[in-house]
Amino acid sequence: MDTLWLVGIGTGSLSHITLEGVKALQQAAVILVPRKGDQKDDLAEIRHRIIEETGSQARIVHFEYPVRDPDLPYQERVKQWHDEIARRWQVAIAGVDITGPVALLVWGDPSLYDSTLRIAERLSPAPQVRVIPGITAIQALTAAHAIPLNTVDGSVMITTGRRLRAEGLPHNAETTVVMLDGLCSFQNLDADGWHIWWGAYLGSDQQILIEGPLADVASQIVETRAAAREQHGWIMDSYILKRR
Ligand SMILES: C[S@@+](CC[C@H](N)C(=O)[O-])C[C@H]1O[C@@H](n2cnc3c(N)ncnc32)[C@H](O)[C@@H]1O
């Protein structure tokens, strides 16, 4: 693979992909599509529908995501997982006659809590990488609630549920975005101090939004999240916290 194009596809709406992304998929010779196993088949389906809508004639090559080893420390677990994904990309396209760029559809944008660029660095020989930006979960969340991300002259912190549970929030965090939180970690905060804007399945027809003082809506979010996860078999949610 001489050329690898990473195409940001947004967060669940077929219309999130940019015109540049559409053209890239039309011009790609091969598109690598992950299969994530049972619960995320909806996401593979969205990828296939996007490819179909662009009219791309690229050859579709699938690869299976490996499973992370839960016995390893976090950083080592992720490193090994990335090594294995890079290996699987190479195995998947070995023997495929590649006559042009290889494309990968990246959920949201490749710059945000996504390791596709880090995995691409592991390829040997190194391909020429091009990034086509996409709409992030943060943009989908602020747009859905029609709010600005930052306060006037304010800073923004972006973190994960795991870090929020382990470290709490810094005293000067005016606006905090929390992603990758399977445990509603806002429950660990002093609920009186915060306002929350929460969203799940952002950009899709299933989108759910809840907003209000954390003390008032925390349990509603926990219950809504659990019910939606039960109904769909998976959930992706993000939220913004601002000091009240
Ligand atoms: C591995 S990260 C990928 C982020 C992605 N690269 C982006 O630009 O938004 C997955 C996390 O993104 C957030 N996310 C992605 N899609 C979402 C959606 N449709 N609705 C809400 N949150 C979403 C969730 O916090 C989820 O745990």
UniProtKB/TrEMBL annotation:
Reaction(s) catalysed by this chain's protein: precorrin-5 + S-adenosyl-L-methionine + H2O = precorrin-6A + acetate + S-adenosyl-L-homocysteine + 2 H(+)
Span of domain Tetrapyrrole methylase: 3-217
GO molecular function: precorrin-6A synthase (deacetylating) activity
GO terms under biological process: cobalamin biosynthetic process; methylation
Documented EC number(s): 2.1.1.152
Top EC class for this record: transferase
UniProt keyword list: Cobalamin biosynthesis, Methyltransferase, S-adenosyl-L-methionine, Transferase
Pathway stated in the Swiss-Prot or TrEMBL entry: Cofactor biosynthesis; adenosylcobalamin biosynthesis
Protein name per Swiss-Prot or TrEMBL: Precorrin-6A synthase [deacetylating]
Organism: Thalassococcus halodurans
Lineage of source species: Bacteria, Pseudomonadati, Pseudomonadota, Alphaproteobacteria, Rhodobacterales
